[in-house]
Amino acid sequence: MGFADLLDEVGGFGRYQWLHVTLISLPGLLMASQNLLNNFVSGIPEHHCSLLSNYSVHNLSHYQLFRAFIPLDSSGNKLDGCRRYVEPQWQLLGANSSANASHAQTEECLDGWTYDRSEFLATTVSEVMTRNLLIVLTGAIIYGGLSDRFGRRSVLIWSYLQLGVLGCSAALSPSYSAYCVFRFLSGMAVSGVILNGVSLKVEWIPTKERTIVGTLTSFFFTFGQMILAGLAYWLRDWRKLQVVTCAPQFLFFAYSWWYSESARWLVLNRRSDEALKSLHRVARINGKPEMIDKLTLEVLHSHMKKEIESSHSSFTAYDLLKTKGMRRISICLIAVWFSTSFAYYGLAMDLQKFGVSIYLMQIIFGAVDFPAKLLALGMLSYLGRRVSQAACLFLSALVIFTNIFVPTDMQTIRTTLACLGKGFTSASFTTVYLYTGELYPTVIRQTGMGFVSTFARVGSMAAPAVLILDEVLPALPSVVYGGAAVLAGFFACFLPETLNVPLPDTIEDVEEKCCQSQVVQYHKYLSESKNSKKKNPKHLSTLYLY
């Protein structure tokens, strides 16, 4: 008997769970906006050197000045948007006198740049002359630890408020430094919303519904990507876009007080009275009022006696690596989270290179998630978590490597393969969010999710930097992205399977399951050794990764 049995008794996946999951998932529509906002907020518009000089007083059109100052190739395209002629090449205004311009001396843009406003009316690039924003990696650790100490609900509510206030404040930033500070702090809140939302959903869902609920709720993020493209196309101004994507957080903050705290967490933190009230509330909403009298503190403690006895007051990130089973899980998940995010954002955050409208490309990248996540749902339900995770990573690597051999002039095929690769990495993200929540025990689940997802932030921060390698060798970024996915796929093969397995509540539960897995492997090894007449238990150590 365990907490999973209590959930079944109070209605299983009933009315409360439907409302609970839906309300927590709704903010996911705007989480994609927060993660991919830089594609539009810091998009790089077409630009050239400003034509601010004494020559601008001549009675000449902007195009004539542009033609006289900006180096162009034979097709009329800019050679370099960051250089101009030192002296105006008036001869280029004639019909047949462009031959001598190639030897003219050029200089850097001394008077700034002029930006094309047809695609973006205003971005942080055109206002502050830079595009890089450091992606937050501290929020996952901070809010993961706080959640295991103060509860999932409390930290989630605070994260909504923090994201709403600081996200809207970023739109009013007078300088790029202030903007970075607000975006950094609101980025921390994004980690709090995503990680606590996942745990609070998982800990109230019965075992058999976890797969389908975890996968289907990830579609909120997919819809969010497409909503972002529509909002960005409509607004065309980074300040307005910032406000529109952050203001709804106040609505989420208002209704989040309805959430019930995780009863698992409450029991393991010696707050059984509150856990019992939450369970009674769930039973009443699920149409099981008779359980209110039947479910007492004695019944609750009898269901979770072992978990209560083995739990203690607090855990730290060190506990994720202290024991063999936890260490194996954490090391493998670090590799999977890093590589999934590394490849995902490497493809998703550089949409302008595809030669297609950035708005259309964002919609395409969102739409490709639908078949990818449906594929993930089928794999998770029938093949299990481990095979699904490894397969998604290997398939994404295969697509990325294939794109290396497609000629650059075959842009349609390259874009199609990039979208396919993004679909597989998205399916990998869906899997790893569900998988991580099932692997770590309740007493340290949020600390664990925060710890390993921090490496996803490292991966997303490193992804754009890798694109610089194409100046050395055009295929090099794809080799790095694909190689990381292959390596993570092998690490995923060493994770324990969690399909239809009850959630672990304590570290002892995890270690016990790992020991059971070792016993099964050991008996399998002995059976194979007996058949082959080779009884050498020393080789058993090769089966495990510690």
Description:
- Helix content is 64%, strand content 2%.
- The longest helix has 29 residues, at 411-439.
- The radius of gyration is 27 Å and the shape is globular.
- The chain has helices at 3-9, 15-25, 28-36, 38-41, 62-69, 124-128, 139-150, 152-171, 176-202, 210-217, 219-235, 238-246, 249-255, 263-268, 272-285, 290-294, 297-303, 305-310, 319-322, 324-348, 358-367, 369-382, 385-404, 411-439, 445-466, 476-492, 507-532, and strands at 47-49, 83-85, 106-108, 113-115.
- It has two domains: 1-26 and 127-312, MFS general substrate transporter like domains (Growth Hormone, Chain: A, Up-down Bundle), CATH 1.20.1250.20; 313-528, Growth Hormone, Chain: A (Up-down Bundle), CATH 1.20.1250.
- By secondary structure, it is an all-alpha fold.
- The model is unreliable at 53-58, 118-135 and 537-546 (pLDDT under 50).
Contiguous low-pLDDT stretches (5 residues minimum) are: 53-58, 118-135, 537-546
Record the strand order, biggest sheet: 1-4
Percentage of β-strand residues: under 5%
Q: Mean pLDDT across all residues, rounded?
A: 76
CATH superfamily of the largest domain: MFS general substrate transporter like domains
The number of domains is 2
| Radius of gyration using CA atoms only | 27 Å
CATH architecture call of the largest domain = Up-down Bundle
Helix content: 55-70%
**What distance separates the N and C termini?**
31 Å
Based on Cα principal axes, name the global outline.
Answer: globular
**SSE class:** mainly alpha
Fill in the CATH topology of the largest domain: Growth Hormone, Chain: A
CATH class of the largest domain: Mainly Alpha
The largest β sheet comes out as: 2 strands, antiparallel
Could you tell me the number of beta strands? 4
